[in-house]
Amino acid sequence: xxxHENRKRQASLQAASAGGRTLxxxxxxxxxxFRSQCGSVPDDPHDSSPGSHSSQSKLDDGADSQASGSSAxxxxxxxxxxxxxxxxxxxxxxxxxxxLGKKPVAETAAGSEYGDPLPESHLSxxxxxxxxxLKIEKPSGSDSEKPIEEVQLPTQVKxxxxxxxxxxxxxxxxxxxxxxxxxxxxxxxxLGASLALFFxxxxxxxxxxxxxxxxxxxxxxxxxxxxxxxxxxSPAVDDFCCGEKMIRRRGLxxxxxxxxxxxxxxxxxxxxxxxxxxxxxxxxxxxxxAGQRLVTADGKPVSVDALQPGAMAIVFPxxxxxxxxxxxxxxxxxxxxxxxxxxxAGWAPMGNLAYSRVCTHAGCSVGMYEATTHLLMCxxxxxxxxxxxxxxxxxxxxxxxxxxxxxxxxxQGFLRAAGGFTAPSxxxxxxxx
Amino acid sequence: MxxxxxxxxxxxxxxxxxxxxALNHVFPxxxxxxxxxxxxxxxxxxxxxxxxxxLFYNGSSAQIIYHGSYRPLDGVRMxxxxxxxxxxxxxxxxxxxxxxxxxxxxxxxxxxxxxHQARIFFTAAYRKPRELNWTVGMTLLVLALxxxxxxxxxxxxxxxxxxxxxxxxxxxxxPVIGPWLTFxxxxxxxxxxxxxxxxxxxxxxIVPAFIAALIGVHLAIVWRQYHTNYPGPGRADTSIVGSRLxxxxxxxxxxxxLLMLSITAALGGLVQIDPVWxxxxxxxxxxxxxxxxxxxxxxxxxxxxxxxxINLHFGRYLIPEVFFxxxxxxxxxxxxxxxxxxxxxxxxxxxxxxxxxxxPSQHPFxxxxxxxxFSVLIILQLAGSDDVISVVTGSSVVALRSLFRVLFFVVPxxxxxxxxxxxxxxxxxxSRSLSVAQESGNEARVLQSD
Lengths: 433, 450
Description:
The complex is a heterodimer of chains A (433) and B (450). Chain A is of the alpha+beta class. Among the domains of chain A are: 3-44 and 52-99, no CATH class; 153-218; 286-417, Rieske [2Fe-2S] iron-sulphur domain (Rieske Iron-sulfur Protein, 3-layer Sandwich). In chain A, 43% of the residues lie in helices and 10% in strands. Chain A has helices at residues 3-19, 23-37, 45-59, 63-70, 75-99, 103-110, 120-123, 127-134, 155-183, 188-212, 233-245, 250-270; strands at 219-222, 294-295, 312-317, 328-332, 352-356, 368-370, 375-377, 384-386, 392-395, 404-405, 407-409, 415-417. By secondary structure, chain B is mainly alpha-helical. Chain B has 2 domains: 30-288 and 296-354, Cytochrome Bc1 Complex, Chain C; 359-450. In chain B, 68% of the residues lie in helices and 4% in strands. In chain B, the strands form 3 sheets. In chain B, strands 1-4 form a two-stranded antiparallel ribbon. In chain B, strands 2-3 form a two-stranded antiparallel sheet. In chain B, α3 (34-54) packs across α10 (245-270) and α5 (95-122) packs antiparallel against α6. The mean pLDDT of chain B is 93. At the A-B interface, α5, α8, α10 and β1 of A face α1, α2, α5, α7 and α8 of B.
């Protein structure tokens, strides 16, 4: 048995003397258990090992197979080898991470000088020459590139390397800052700044590093002409069509398949029903019913002299306070200013005017009222409506007036609706008029 | 170690040839070719931060009374969606950072796509064989715009509530199918409880799935066709000039990604965006003065503000005024952009494959057209904030609107003529200097032969 085996035995003896079964022997046992579950592995590993190893070493002739091929011990030793392999990988990873800052020096030493612009001759290499060199063999590796020269490290590379290291250090500091800020419940500013420092440092480091890797090598490769007819095209089309020909009575089949597809899409489209009840009569609703009292958002009825001339209030029908479509603006103006159409005479008792508060343009709340000009204005697109003449649009993008609500005063002096809005409230749509 | 991993992989997948080709793939270097990369990385950041947010967001418009840690809104009635956004912003560690990074990344994403498409337009990279990828890119732009709207509507704050109602009005304005389309999309007359869950599913699943798939298609096509080159010495349609993917290009690109992360983190941490707690919850009877959409919808907002109140009645039927600036105009613009490569091909009878770009000055008509479209969009963008401009400058909104209505026609007219003449001038100068160079070259050759 190999040294490995002996060492392992010693270790297990020590472990046993230290206090029975330990974790170090548990791992290999577990692995052995799982190995025994594999269907392809015979019960006795000793019999099978030579064969399996030889076949393996045919496939891979690297350093790893030497290690695994030389000693075919018990399943314990196999497991140890595996574990040591993992440890090796982990060490490698750590080494790579540690070497990140140093790497550029080595790379550039083997590469070309830094910062030297590409010779003109290389840039203007005639294409014929380039393609003669490369043939169509693509990728061509580094054949066409500048010959690799051993050069002395210019100072730029040294400063560049230092800069990369500094950037990575800044990133590291940013990362620590983020962790500290995060775990100590730091504010958004601190979190964002430290995260920005981390990513920024890392990003600058990579970009600087890429500059150290002699960016100035420019490659010229011939392009495959995608437009030229390819020899595969015609056979491909033939294969597709012939495949179809092999099926008999394809006319019938084609039509039934098309019908099936049509049915599928019809079924699929009809499933859209699940997504909404189709637009219903509520779109055409005039919201208010005759006799409904006007109430404020907190449910108080509005008396006819509640507002001074020039004042504005938001009111709702008594039963639907706060809903979008029912919001109504109540404005009181001096009665002698009114220029309502003749058929709306008496709709504004004592100068109280009520209009839908939903803009007919794009549905925002017409929230602003300018008492001096008697204009209602929508803050979204600046449509203006003159309240004196039935809220006709006076400029801006709206085309239709705000629907008006006819009012009357009941015996107790409260305002009530004499009917619905003159039109459905809200923006226009197909079929509204 | 790498060798052994590679051997293990290759003995199972036979990928060595493909990987070698990939590592040696040639990409040209130019700052303007980074714009697409920026868009790609912005999308990656969007997915990462969005996944974080989705774990805390509650896509429900059930009405609740708030009693959370943000005291100013204590006792206020709001939707569960809005409450969850407040929760993300104030209670989840790093939540506000993720939310603001997400919003900033979305703005950068769309800006990068627009800049990328503009670069492609002005350098005529859309010509054969790249017409397909141009249409893929346009579709990505449309999807990004739509998803941006879904995204900020989901916060269910007062500002996005207004945006939702405007969106509703726009969708309803489409002739014949408008009301059905709107109800299918939003689930009823806005505000309705069905809208937020629908927008949630659209925003985090359906639209991003399409965007991701199309990005895959986009990159596959770029990979297959190789990138274009700017014109220059040694540049021809039959060759590709650039650096290899590995290691320089890959390192630089990864560095760009990290810098993007850095910039979005800095913006997310230091520059406030969409502070929904200031606006308050969505309320159908309230409105914010000076409300603006996100920048990428500002041009539609501006068009809606400038377009005069014209609507068409057909008996019982109506095409409302919103349809023309908010559906017809963007629709025509996008259809034209989609079709532009094919229009140019048909018009110029040019069906050759082009791999060397055309400089903007080399095609004055194309460049003038592009600049004209951009000037229109900029005027509309400004008109979309005319209320804010009015507050800042003290001039009346009505006067500003009239001014912008005039500028809408005057500025593009001037821009088109000026850009056209400028291109002609630059082009003439270049061809003169080229011919001088040719002549001197001939002289040199003559001298040499002597």
